[in-house]
Amino acid sequence: MVKLVKRTLGGGICMLNIETIKTKAVPILKNYGVNQAYIFGSFARGEQNQDSDIDFLIEYDPNADFSLFELVELKYALEDVLQRKVDVVTEGSLSKYIRPSVLKDRKVII
């Protein structure tokens, strides 16, 4: 299990790993109607550092009324609970150039 030591604003240290991310992020993801979620990028590969953001790939019920505004709200809610910059994308929004590496690296959260 890879752990990242992150300095908090108050000068303390907290451990951030995939299990901690799951514990904190899953309730928020479910609250926004996300059916499936993955982490990809440096956290998924175990190459994160203290400046790394957390990249989420999400899927939601296609019948749900999920707007761009809700996607932005979800991003901010995740950043608030994780105390780290977050990117949230859907599979449909992935560029054809990065799609293969995202799908290869992704780790299941939900």
UniProtKB/TrEMBL annotation:
> InterPro entries under this entry?
NT_sf (IPR043519), Polymerase_NTP_transf_dom (IPR002934), Type-VII_TA_antitoxin (IPR052038)
User: ATP-binding: is it a keyword of this entry?
Assistant: yes
What cofactors does this protein use? Mg(2+)
Keywords attached to this entry: ATP-binding, Magnesium, Metal-binding, Nucleotide-binding, Nucleotidyltransferase, Toxin-antitoxin system, Transferase
Q: Which GO terms describe its molecular function?
A: ATP binding; metal ion binding; nucleotidyltransferase activity
Q: Where is the Polymerase nucleotidyl transferase domain?
A: 29-108
Q: What's the superkingdom here? A: Bacteria
Q: PANTHER family, per this entry?
A: PROTEIN ADENYLYLTRANSFERASE MJ0435-RELATED (PTHR33571:SF14), SSL8005 PROTEIN (PTHR33571)
Q: Belongs to which family?
A: Belongs to the MntA antitoxin family.
Give the protein's recorded name.
Answer: DNA polymerase, beta domain protein region
